[in-house]
């Protein structure tokens, strides 16, 4: 039947999380098949630069078109992949798709950057780094068109190796972005330790920046701090125009969120960028 065909793996576990564990393991067993059968796909969320009012980049967000469960968001499988050694293959798969899509966009004279989410767990992994750099080089895409967004959710396992990785990537021209900034326990420590190009203020601080005084202080001072260090700032999760205008007032460089666009499949991203090529105007 279906389970045998997809090579599902079950394990015995008497704990109360048995069902959840089994679901996770089942998914992981299927992930290899999903990668082989191209059930994994990527959507892109545009990032709007406020000074020029143009789309300067797009963030790649992974999705799994599962044959029976429908479209799964990364929350359903990324963490499991991180904990079970599949994150390398998943990330390289996404990177490969992104490079291919950038080549297609270049054929339409679109040269925006693409951001790929990289688990902190992968940062110091020399196998990952070597394969990623080889892939980028083989694609012909200028490394300067890539941004690696590092999330704090998983701890950096080998900070010294991570430091070397970041230096190598930046040396090639790949930009480094700190994702979900402010939510981790080591945000300032990261800024002290790692040379980064961009910082993405988490949606939880951005969402109410126009109506919450405390959020405004946190966002304003984070932007000042970043700018003093030569780092660009992205506001994530921008859902309304008042929020965007406040971020503009606070000199935030880039905004991203449902107000600008939902994540789009590659050809819709192309249309979106072409539509807003000269200057971006929000339809309100
Ligand atoms: P993230 O990198 O912080 O990505 C932003 C998430 O917020 C995305 O959810 C996006 O769809 C959602 N979002 C964007 N704009 C808005 C908005 O205005 N309002 C609200 N409420 N949400 C918004 P998504 O796609 O479910 O991704 C969740 C997380 O999964 C990402 O957070 C990222 O940490 C991780 N992720 C996504 N793709 C990959 C991947 O290829 N590899 C790895 N390692 N992690 C990934
Ligand atoms: Mg991200
Ligand atoms: Mg984020
Ligand atoms: Mg996030």
UniProtKB/TrEMBL annotation:
Domain EAL as annotated: residue spans: 24-277
Taxonomic superkingdom: Bacteria
Coiled coil stretches, renumbered: none
The protein's name: EAL domain-containing protein
Native source organism of the sequence: Flavisphingopyxis soli
